[in-house]
Each structure stands twice: as structure tokens, then as C-alpha cells.
Design goal:
By secondary structure, this protein is of the alpha/beta class. The protein contains 9 helices and 9 strands. Strands 1, 2, 3, 4, 5, 6, 7, 8 and 9 form a 9-stranded mixed β-sheet that branches.
Length: 244
């Protein structure tokens, strides 16, 4: 069965990368969540997509220049039309604490592409170990050096490279870095690539799939997973392909 990962939580309707969006994803029966991790000045891993807080909160500046205490004062629901109450930027610890009480999978994306947060891999590994989530976490990144470093620290934690482009035989590349899967932009997840990868034991989890036709195609072909902003819609479409 194709798994459904809620991209930044159920981010179509709820403020992305907040506990509200993650809790909603669980309600909408997603199999897992996807989230983005940056590091504060005092080295707390926090869940926010951009290097700066400007787009998603009422603050301004780089995450790396805030202490965690300072960052918590910002409102991550500020720009959302449906949420009127304040929502803080979650720490990764807070999300892991919540995951301890459910069975969801979690795709942790290390945002090390622009700012190479020194030590982020060690910090994230130790948190995964503390919460014993090794079997439920997939760590991905556009910065493949980052996930390879993480794999060397913790070979029992699954890694997955993210791609924006059409690599040739990506399953061979994935195998070469000891990844059990890869996360391509959905435009590059052709049926041929998905079939060949899965036949070679490599999972394919395309992002960010909100288009009904594309969801249909990926469920029909039995793709390993989809990463979507709209888990409820994906769940509804997937039902057509799974016997009740
Ligand atoms: O993990 C898939 C996707 O989240 C990668 O792109 O920019 O949404 O983090 P982005
Ligand atoms: Ca992401």
C-alpha cells in the first residue's frame, strides 16, 4: 500500500510545520508526517522550513540568530487565515514527544542546503535515540553530504536523498550511499523509474503531490509513498485502490 506523508503536516489548511498541522494529519489518517529542521543559536533543532522566520511567522531574521526561548515567542500561525490562536514554532523534541504517543512515521528533512548547521546530524541522531524512534524516522535532505554523515553516525536510521532533477537510474545512486529510498520531485517520478527502483528494493516517495491525477497515478502504480499537503484528499483517492 502506498503510504501517505503529510507534507509539513496537513499544511493545506493549517499553518505549516506546527503541532496543529501534525495533529490534523493524524486525524486525517496520514501514515506519517514530513517536517523541516533548522538549528537555533543555542543549538535547539526546531521545525521550520525557511532559514528565516519572515515568511511563516510575525518575526524577522534568521533562525540561527534566535535562541530557542526567543523563537518560541513568535507566532507561526500569524499568516494562516483559518487559525486565530497563536501557534509556536515547535522544537523537534516536542514533535518526538507527541510521536511517542502514536504510531506515525516521520520524515525529518535536514535543511542543511543553505546553512551547513554544524553538528545538526549529531543532535538529531541523539534525539531520535533518546525517543527510540529509529524505526519510524526517515532522514532526508537536498544536502546529500548531510544524510551520508548521519548514516555514518547511525546506520540503523534510514536516510533518503531529495532530488529536484531527473537523475539517471536514481535507485543505483540511492544504493551507493546506503539509502533504502529516495524522494524525487513528483515530475521526475515516472512510472518506469518507480517500477525499476521498487524492483531493485529502493523506495520512492515523491513530493509534493497534491494534484488528483498524479495521486491517482502513484496509487495505481503502487508507489512506496506520496508526500502531500492534503492527506485527507490523498486518503480518499487511495481508498479506490485498496480493498475494504
Ligand atoms: O521532503 C519533500 C519536500 O518537503 C522538499 O521540499 O521545499 O517542501 O522542503 P520543501
Ligand atoms: Ca521539506
Amino acid at each position: 500500500m502506498t503510504l501517505i506523508f503529510a507534507h509539513r503536516g496537513s499544511s493545506d489548511a493549517f499553518p505549516e510545520n506546527t503541532m496543529k498541522a501534525f495533529i490534523e494529519a493524524e486525524k486525517e489518517q496520514a501514515d506519517g508526517i514530513e517536517l523541516d529542521v533548522q538549528l537555533t543559536r543555542d543549538l535547539e533543532p526546531v521545525v521550520i522550513h525557511d532559514e528565516r522566520v519572515d515568511r511563516t511567522t510575525n518575526g524577522t531574521g534568521y533562525v540561527k540568530d534566535f535562541t530557542y526561548k526567543e523563537l518560541r515567542k513568535l507566532d507561526a500561525a500569524y499568516r494562516n487565515k483559518t487559525i486565530v490562536t497563536k501557534e509556536p514554532i515547535p522544537s523537534l523534541r516536542e514533535v518526538f514527544e507527541w510521536l511517542s504517543g502514536n504510531h506515525l512515521l516521520c520524515n525529518v528533512e535536514l535543511k542543511t542546503g543553505k546553512i551547513p548547521y554544524k553538528g545538526i546530524e549529531e543532535i538529531v541522531v541523539s534525539l531520535i535515540r533518546e525517543y527510540q524512534l529509529e524505526d519510524r524516522i526517515i532522514v532526508s535532505s537536498f544536502n546529500h553530504y548531510s544524510i551520508i554523515h548521519l548514516y555514518r553516525l547511525a546506520p540503523n536510521i534510514e536516510i533518503a536523498p531529495l532530488f529536484m532533477e531527473g537523475l539517471y537510474m536514481p535507485w543505483i545512486y540511492a544504493k551507493s550511499i546506503r539509502a533504502k529510498g529516495f524522494h524525487p520531485h513528483y515530475r521526475f517520478a515516472t512510472n518506469e523509474i518507480i517500477k525499476a527502483s521498487m524492483e531493485n528494493g529502493i523506495a520512492v516517495r515523491p513530493y509534493t503531490v497534491n494534484n488528483e491525477k498524479e495521486l491517482h497515478r502513484l496509487f495505481q502504480i503502487g508507489c512506496s509513498a506520496v508526500i502531500t499537503d492534503e492527506p485527507a484528499k490523498a486518503f480518499r483517492i487511495r481508498k479506490q485502490f485498496t480493498p475494504s
